[in-house]
Amino acid sequence: MRSLWLILCLLATGAAHAGNATYAGELIARARALRLADEPGWHGLLHYRRVLVGGVRSETDDPSFFNAPDGKTNPAAELDATLMAFFSTLEETDKQQNPQCLFVARYRWLKERLGFDPARLPEQPCPRFERWRAELDPVSVTLVFPAAFINSPASMYGHTLLRLDGRAQTDRTRLLDYAINFAAYTGEDGGLAFAWKGLMGGYEGRFSLTPYYLKIAEYNDLESRDIWEYELALTPAEIDRLLAHTWELGSARFEYYFLDENCSYQLLWLLDVARPSLRLAERFPAWVIPADTIRAVRDEPGLVRRVSYRPSRTSQFQHAVSQLPAPDVDLALALADGGAALTDPRLKDREPEPQARILDLAFDYLDTQRLSGQRPPQVAGPRLRELMLARSRFDVAEAPPVPTPQVRPDEGHGSARLRVGGGTVDANGFAELRFRGAYHDLLDPAAGYGRGAQIEFGDIVARRESGDGRPFLHRFTVIDVTSIAPRDRLAKRMSWQVQFGMDRSRGPAGDRPILYQVSGGAGMAWALGGSATAYLMGQAGTYFSAHLTQAASVGLGARAGLMHDWNDRVRLHAVLQGLAYLDGPDARRNAATMGVDATLTRQLGLRLELERRHEFGYGWSTVGLHLNGYFRCCDP
Fold first, then answer.
1. CB of 617 within 8 A of CB of 548?
2. Is 618 left (phi over 0), alpha (psi -120 to 50) or beta?
3. Long-range pairs for 39-42 at CB < 8 Å and ≥24 separation?
4. In principle, which of 215, 293, 566, 589 could form an S-S bond with 264, CB 3.0–4.6 Å?
5. Which helix (H) or strand (E) holds 198?
């Protein structure tokens, strides 16, 4: 009945003559017989996902993306309506496209599966798409991963985009290529509004095509993020499918969710359309960590052809500093700040190579300050030109490149963690089971992750204490983000921490009152030499509890910590912290904790935790030993 209704509509609107209506009915009948609407290829083109109550639902939230009124939830109706739309004779202009051109990936897929007769369904010219395709002319596609950016909570997971490697470019000119990017349009939001909307789908996400050099400037230079490039072994036909689907996505609107329907997840759909057998998007039903999507792509046999490393400006700068003696570094900074002249004997009396290296460092330091806004362009510009002119007088090769890190981000530990262990709390034994959805804490194995960066969400701890046979929820951390960024004469960075969740306190009668709490703070960190870092933060926090005399309060306090890596396998983190609440009896919460983590393998670790707490007039001590297992959540 539905196909008959569609054909009658086609005739009534004059969109095709009777012969076309007959052929449309034949195509619809053949598509139903082949069950094309149930195939992964069709579901990928429409971004359909299974829903809990049965059926499917497209994750595209733009009505213009569909041909059927119920196309968002009805793949069969969408396929029928799409076939009917292809009989349109609408001519292409700057403001409109024929459906065959607007949905070019769907047209090509259905044409391949159904073998359209060009005499009965004429193929419409698509000059705009063909011109766009010819201008890009990619011969390969590269998955690009800008690694975590420690000073931004929205970027501490990293990001992904796809670079289209044009035929006209080489490895030396890849900056001139274009990149496919998916991002949220956040406006001027920040702070709690940004976090809430990002978690709850309050932003629109869209695909865009951007010159690659602009993304390098954004991630490599402005945000100081190392970039890893994974060249994919896609065939020409697969690249064509990817491009066609990118075109038909156009300006389609998606709801953006920071934890799942994010930048990395949406790009997986493009790869699934290019090669339907991959089915990458369906491997992430709960949450999506960019590094995990890189791992999923890497684990596909033969999909990754080559991996390249592009160090950030900060990595280049730090490497240059490490290659110079301290007096030369001091001179470079003085040259950049104007505290030393280019005629300074400490520079002019040196050999050409050390002069060149000092000038390189001075230029990079001043340019970094300009990009970060610490030095106004009108002030930095003239000095940068002077430094560049002085450097050009030396025919000295560039310094050796930054060494590629031994461990790539996709080779680090899995982002999910399962912990089993036990210990004692005031001589009372306990067993503990703990699961963390993502992603990394300050004591986890650092290989492949940024040191000093912690972001955890969905960390749930269940305990069972001796003498009490009932397991109970001990702690649930919704999110805990910490950034420990040491300050030095080259970088004046802030360190900060935010936490939200539920915890249990203890009382003298053996009770375990539940506290819902939010806390945060900011301060400074300093490198102590070697692998040690100390930090100090001011803190503020609030709690809510139905089990205490004072049901809610706010407080102020401080947090001090020390991190130290004995070697590549053993790490220590010690913390002293306290909050004094504004009212309530014995309204103080103080804690001294120390954790020591030993890496056994890349995905296995042993952790010792010591803790002394004093809260609301009662104190207790805890000793625990735990085995941590890391894995990528939701592996097929």
1. no
2. beta
3. 40/272, 40/276, 40/279, 41/109, 41/273, 41/276, 42/75, 42/79, 42/109
4. 293
5. helix 191-200
The rounded distance, in Å, linking the Cα atoms of 191 and 197 is 10
Show the tokens assigned to 591. Answer: 């804690």
Distance of CA 452 to the CA centre of its chain: 17
Q: Which residues pair with 455 in a beta bridge?
A: 440, 481
Phi, psi (degrees; rounded to nearest 5) at 132: -60, -45
Name which of 134, 122, 97, 127 is nearest 248 in CA terms.
97
Closest CA to 510 of 423, 428, 422: 428
Q: Which H helix or E strand runs over 479?
A: strand 472-483
Question: The tokens of 222 are what?
Answer: 């402005």
List pLDDT tens digits, range 332-381.
Answer: 989 988 888 888 889 888 888 988 999 999 998 888 888 777 888 888 88
Mean pLDDT rounded to a whole number for the chain = 88
Quick one: tokens of 109?
A: 């897929």
Write the secondary structure of 375-409 as one string of H (helix), E (strand) and C (coil). Answer: CCHHHHHHHHHHHHHHHHCCCCCCCCCCCCCCCCH
To the nearest 10 degrees (0 to 180), the angle between helices 2-12 and 75-85 is 30
Answer for the pair 25, 3: CB distance below 8 angstroms, yes or no: yes
N- to C-terminal Cα separation, the chain: 39
The domain 412-631 having CATH identifier 2.40.160.40: the answer here is: yes
The answer to whether 121 touches 196, Cβ cutoff 8 Å, is no
Rounded-to-integer distance, Cα 536 and Cα 560, Å = 4
Measured between alpha carbons, how far is 405 from 307 in angstroms, rounded to an integer? Answer: 12
Rg (CA), the chain: 29
Q: Determine the Cα–Cα distance for residues 179 and 141; give it in Å rounded to an integer.
A: 9
Q: What is residue 157's three-state secondary structure? A: coil
Alpha-carbon distance of 431 to 625, in angstroms, equals: 10
Residue 431: phi, psi to the nearest 5? -115, 145
Confirm if 603 and 630 have CB atoms less than 8 A apart.
yes
Q: Are 436 and 413 within 8 A, CB to CB?
A: no
Q: How far apart are CA 396 and CA 392, in angstroms?
A: 9
What residues have CB less than 8 Å from 246, skipping those under 6 apart? 180, 207, 209, 270
Asked if residue 219 has a cis previous peptide bond (ω within 30° of 0), the answer is no
Domain locations along the chain: 2-124, 133-310, 324-392, 412-631
Q: For residue 37, give the DSSP letter.
A: G
Instruction: Tell me the pLDDT band of 2, cut-offs 50, 70 and 90.
Output: very low
**CB atoms near residue 625 (< 10 Å):** 12
List all residues 6 or more positions away from 74 whose beta carbon is below 8 Å from its beta carbon. Answer: 68
* DSSP code of residue 218: I
Structural element, H or E, at residue 410 = none
- 560 and 536 Cβ atoms separated by less than 8 Å: yes
For residue 15, name the pLDDT band (cuts at 50, 70, 90): very low
> Which residue spans within 239-341 are E strands per DSSP?
254-256, 304-310
Using CA atoms, how far apart are residues 624 and 611, in angstroms rounded to an integer?
Answer: 9
Angle formed at CA 292 by CA 287 and CA 298, multiple of 5 degrees: 145
pLDDT in tens, 158-173: 789 999 999 988 888 8
* Buried b or exposed e, range 151-185, using 16+ CB within 10 angstroms: eebebbbbbbbbbbbbeebeeeebeebbbbbbbbe
pLDDT of amino acid 629: 96
Strands 203-211 and 254-256: antiparallel
